[in-house]
């Protein structure tokens, strides 16, 4: 009853929000509760630029699986036949929510792709276990939750944005060489699939518990789909959910606020590629470097006093759009300036920053000086000073 009350309150809150916002003409939000069986049946999910990479690691996977199995094991009865009718008597479990938006006939996941990608990896591993336990009918059902078919042929529900090859190899149980691809999503998909495989094999030790769990997983785990009708509202809702839920890093929210004003086709065809080209090399060393870059960049190019310097200590993704700093930066709702910033300043200075923090710094002609300034003279502001000294595409950079 407690879970049901929570669900009802959640749904009522969204209905109130939806009704109020529709009356005053701001935005429209629709909420729908769905089982995993319903969620993965006919919808091909694209991953919006807000959170394109799959970043979950072992701790996230174990936390999700522990929560699911805790609830399942409270209900599981080894003396009762694992039929849909009997499993229907189990208490349902609210996993979480995910946020979507439609554009040009395609459904984009704005928030929640970490969870949906992980659920797909669980489905793939459950599918493989169906052969081990000779559960052909369940195997066919699970297969339909992993991929379907459209006019182009076989389509994985979570296979967009370059993930088809990885999911297809995992589905076929073919080996994947993780050493040949350092893409964050690829590495985590491959690693997490192995973590999930071991976890499920340890838990689902006989045919009875396996069949009970599969039916429970497909029909009793609930998620709430929050659908945002208007594209222009997505960035604001994304930022609010981040502020009040599990925190994203500042640079991830900054990306959503900044690029969210651009046309989605332009983002996908050009600006997201530029953004990822600047961010991913820094992420590959340490995710904290990306926020370090943005703080150093804004301070290097625009700060003149100690008080101004301190403005960028915390959530700089909000500082940038404050009245004080927007008078200087002029990025707030200014599409032309946003495009110019991404194409020029961001593209150049993010690559320069990577050169300076690259572990292979000695491969560059200036590498020894950067290295020894840091390690011998304790010059901890040289990154800021170098960004300050260099102009965009500076011919005297070296």
Question: Can you lay out the helices and strands and say which pair or pack?
Answer:
Layout: H1 2-24, E1 29-35, H2 36-39, E2 45-47, H3 58-75, H4 84-87, E3 93-103, E4 106-111, H5 113-132, H6 136-146, E5 147-150, E6 153-156, H7 164-171, H8 184-203, H9 207-219, E7 221-228, H10 234-244, H11 250-259, H12 264-285, H13 288-302, H14 306-310, H15 316-319, H16 323-329, H17 335-357, H18 367-375, H19 382-389
Parallel strand pairs: 2-4, 3-7
Antiparallel strand pairs: 1-7, 3-4, 5-6
Compute the number of strand runs: 7
Please give the domain count: 2
Question: Strands across the major sheet, in which order?
Answer: 1-7-3-4-2
Q: Structural class, please?
A: alpha/beta
Number of helical elements = 19
Q: What overall form do the CA principal axes indicate? A: elongated
SSE ordering: HEHEHHEEHHEEHHHEHHHHHHHHHH
Roughly what is the average pLDDT, rounded to an integer? 86
Q: Name the quaternary structure.
A: single chain
The radius of gyration over CA amounts to 24 Å
Poorly predicted residue ranges: 1-9, 16-25
Provide the β-strand percentage band.
Answer: 5-15%
Distance between termini?
A: 67 Å
Helix % is 55-70%
Largest sheet: 5 strands, mixed
């Amino acid at each position: 009853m407690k879970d049901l009350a929570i669900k009802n309150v959640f749904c009522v809150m969204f209905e109130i929000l939806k009704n109020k916002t529709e009356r005053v003409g701001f935005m429209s939000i629709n909420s729908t509760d769905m089982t995993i069986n319903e969620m993965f049946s006919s919808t091909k999910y694209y991953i919006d630029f807000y959170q394109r990479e799959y970043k979950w690691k072992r701790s996230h996977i174990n936390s999700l699986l522990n929560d699911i199995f805790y609830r399942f094991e409270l209900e599981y009865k080894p003396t009762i036949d694992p039929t849909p009718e009997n499993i229907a008597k189990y208490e349902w479990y609210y996993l979480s929510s995910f946020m979507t938006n439609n554009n040009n006939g395609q459904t984009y996941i704005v928030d929640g792709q970490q969870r949906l990608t992980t659920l797909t990896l669980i489905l793939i591993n459950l599918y493989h276990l169906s052969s081990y336990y000779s559960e052909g009918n369940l195997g066919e059902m699970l297969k339909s939750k992993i991929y379907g078919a459209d006019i182009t042929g076989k389509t994985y529900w979570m296979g967009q944005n370059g993930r088809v090859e990885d999911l297809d190899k995992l589905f076929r149980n073919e080996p994947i060489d993780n050493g040949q691809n350092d893409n964050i999503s690829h590495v985590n998909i491959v690693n997490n699939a192995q973590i999930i495989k071991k976890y499920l094999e340890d838990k689902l030790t006989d045919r009875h518990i396996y069949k009970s769990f599969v039916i429970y997983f497909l029909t009793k785990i609930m998620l709430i789909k929050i659908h945002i009708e208007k594209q222009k509202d997505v960035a604001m809702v994304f930022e609010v959910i981040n502020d009040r839920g599990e925190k994203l890093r500042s640079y991830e929210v900054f990306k959503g606020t900044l690029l969210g004003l651009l046309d989605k086709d332009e983002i996908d065809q050009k600006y997201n590629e530029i953004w990822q080209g600047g961010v991913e090399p820094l992420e590959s060393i340490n995710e904290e470097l990306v926020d370090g870059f943005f703080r150093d960049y804004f301070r290097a190019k625009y700060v003149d006093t100690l008080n101004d310097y301190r403005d960028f200590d915390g959530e700089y993704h909000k500082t940038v759009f404050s009245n004080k700093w927007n008078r200087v930066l002029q990025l707030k709702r200014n599409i032309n300036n946003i495009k110019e910033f991404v194409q020029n300043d961001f593209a150049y200075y993010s690559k320069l920053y990577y050169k300076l923090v690259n572990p292979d710094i000695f491969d560059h002609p200036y590498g020894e000086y950067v290295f020894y300034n840091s390690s011998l003279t304790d010059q901890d502001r040289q990154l800021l000073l170098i960004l300050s000294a260099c102009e965009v595409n500076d011919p005297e950079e070296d």
